[in-house]
From TrEMBL:
Residues 25-375 form the Aminotransferase class I/classII large domain. Its cofactor is pyridoxal 5'-phosphate. This is Aminotransferase. SUPFAM superfamilies: PLP-dependent transferases. InterPro entries: Aminotransferase_I/II_large, Kynurenine-oxoglutarate_AT, PyrdxlP-dep_Trfase, PyrdxlP-dep_Trfase_major, PyrdxlP-dep_Trfase_small. GO terms for molecular function: kynurenine-oxoglutarate transaminase activity; pyridoxal phosphate binding. Keywords: Aminotransferase, Pyridoxal phosphate, Transferase. GO terms for cellular component: cytoplasm. It comes from Pedobacter kyungheensis. Belongs to the class-I pyridoxal-phosphate-dependent aminotransferase family. Pfam families: Aminotran_1_2. It comes from the Bacteria.
Amino acid sequence: IQSKLPGVSTTIFTVMSKLAAEHNAINLSQGFPDYACDPKLVELVNQAMQDGYNQYAPMPGATFLKETIAAKVENLYKVKYNPDTEITVTAGGTQAIFTALAAIISAGDEVIIFEPAYDSYAPTIKLLGGLVKTYELAPPGYAIDWDMVKKLFTARTRMIILNSPQNPTGSILSADDMKALIKLVSGTDILILSDEVYEHLIYDGQQHQSVMLYPELKQRSFIVASFGKLLHATGWKLGYCLAPEKLTKEFRKVHQFNVFSVNSPMQQAIATYLQTPANYTGIAAFFQEKRDYFRSLLAESRLELLPCNGSYFQCASYRNISDEKDTDFSMRLIKEFGVATIPVSAFYQKGTDHKIIRFCFAKEHETLALAAEKLKNI
Ligand code: PMP
Ligand code: GLN
C-alpha cells in the first residue's frame, strides 16, 4: 500500500508511555495527571446517564454546554461568542485541530508552524495535501522574530498555527507578539488556528494572550480548547472550537462527517460542573505550585532548567551531562534511572536536537519527588 504519510511513525507519546510501562519507569513523558479528577465530576456523569443523556448529542454540541462555554469565555476574557453559531464541542483538542485544518486546507496551501510543535500539526497538514512552512525556534527562550515569519509568507499562505502556552517549551506569547502578528496579517486573508489548550496554565500572574482579545485576530481565528487539561481528565477527550460564524460554518461541515457529535452524558456533566467558576479559576495556582516544587527538586541535579511560563511541561538541557542524542539520552534515563521523559527533537520534523528533554509535572508531589531522587545522580 502506498502510504499517505510515509515519514510518519507512531506518535512519541505512545512510544514513551509504552516504554515507561515496560521498564517500570516513572512516567513524566506523555502529558496527563497521575491523580484523580474531582469525584464530583464522575458523580455528575453518572447522574447525566441516569437522567437519560444516552443518545446522540446535538451535532454542534449540547446547548447547555455551549452556553456554559460562552459564559466562561465572557467571564474570563470579556469577549462574546454566540453558542449557536460560533461554538462547537469536539472530541478533544486534537479533533478540533484536525477538523479546522480539514475545513480550510486544500492541496498546495501553505501553513506556517513554529517548532518545536505539538506533533499532530504537520502530519495533518500533509495529509490534506498542504505544505508545512516551518519556523524553528531555539532555546532557551524560543522567542519569535516576526520579521522572519513574514519571510515565510507567499501567495499560497493560508494559515498560521499558534500555540500559547506552548507544548513542549512552556513559552508564552506576549502582547507585543500579538501586536506584531496583527501587523503581519492585516490586509491579508490569512487565517489563524490558535491552539490554546493550556490557556489556564499560565504562571506568575501573567495574562494569557488569547487571539480573541484582538478583534483583528479574532475575526480570522479558530481557537482550540481542551477539557482534558482544565478538568484533569485527559481521557475524556472533550474540547471545543471557537470561531466566527463564517468559519464555524465550514468547521461544522467537516465535524458532522468526522464524529457527528461527541459524548453526551459528559457534556452535561461538564456544563453542570462549570456553573461554579471556582471549578475553573484556581488551576493556574494549582499547577504553579507543582512547577515550583518540581523546579526546586531538579535544581539539585546537573540538569539546566529552561524557563516555564505556562503549560504543565518543564524542559531541561542535559548539555553539561552528556553529548548523546536526546533520543538516546531519554532512552538511557528510562533504562538506567527509571524516569521517562520526551526528547524535544520529536517536536521538530527535522529532528533538531538541542539536547533538551521535556518533563510533565502534572503529577502528585510524591511522584515528582521520587523522580527527582532518581535524577539526582545523573
Ligand atoms: N494541543 C496541544 C498543544 C496539546 O498538548 C494537546 C494534548 N495534550 C492537544 C492539543 C490535544 O488535546 P486533547 O487531548 O484534548 O485532544
Ligand atoms: N498533549 C500531551 C503531551 O504533549 C499528549 C497528547 C497525546 O498523547 N496525544 O504529552
